[in-house]
């Protein structure tokens, strides 16, 4: 890791045949930062995240995550990060407690550490009474908060969250972001994709992708000043309209 940068990308590109999913994107993310990766569905956010997580090789460009190269050290990257998919990633036929024990084992934690972390998470989520319930019986909001807690169970340097609040109500979304703040305050870097533009306000910095390219990158305050906008929704609409005009 260089100068506190835990993620670097330089002209990172992914092609599927003639289709360019991510087009020469470049950015850096600092330790402990909440970095928002915004864009409409299909903008290339998930493709970029999969490359950074060591799940998909880039077509060209460079990137490092936690000091490891995405080409040569994808396994090292996977050991250094947490990941929460937009598709629910826990085992629904296991109980809450069994899921934590299972993933603790996958992450290589000792039995004693797993036991302590399980109790800590149950208390933090106020789920002691639900620890022996099957995950599939839980409300969606509880599932999402549990999935996030499991993603950082091993205290990774970086956690990647792919559309983590999709489908949950506004109150649960706010509670989820409070958990993100707490993780960042403990030194975990949070890289989060979302198509909810209001969630940009919760990030330290945001990049906005349009058709595979990063069209804007700065703090929410600076972006609103730059585009003379009252909200991040307005910023995104201006960028989307610009892309349509260019396409014409």
Summarize the model shown.
This protein is an alpha/beta fold and 248 residues long. The chain has helices spanning 45-52, 74-80, 96-106, 111-124, 140-151, 170-185, 220-226, 232-247, and strands at residues 5-16, 19-30, 34-39, 60-65, 68-69, 81-84, 158-162, 189-194, 205-210, 213-218. Strand 4 and strand 5 form a beta hairpin.
- Residue runs with pLDDT of under 50 for 5 or more positions: none
**How would you write the strand order of the largest sheet?**
6-7-8-3-9-10
Using the coordinates above, name the CATH class: Alpha Beta
| Percentage of residues in strands | 25-35%
Q: CATH homologous superfamily name?
A: P-loop containing nucleotide triphosphate hydrolases
Radius of gyration: 18 Å
Based on helices, strands and strand pairing, what is the structural class? Answer: alpha/beta
The number of distinct β-strands equals 10
> DSSP helix count?
8
Produce the secondary structure layout.
Layout: E1 5-16, E2 19-30, E3 34-39, H1 45-52, E4 60-65, E5 68-69, H2 74-80, E6 81-84, H3 96-106, H4 111-124, H5 140-151, E7 158-162, H6 170-185, E8 189-194, E9 205-210, E10 213-218, H7 220-226, H8 232-247
Parallel strand pairs: 3-8, 3-9, 6-7, 7-8
Antiparallel strand pairs: 1-2, 1-4, 4-5, 9-10
Helix pairs in contact: 3-4, 5-6
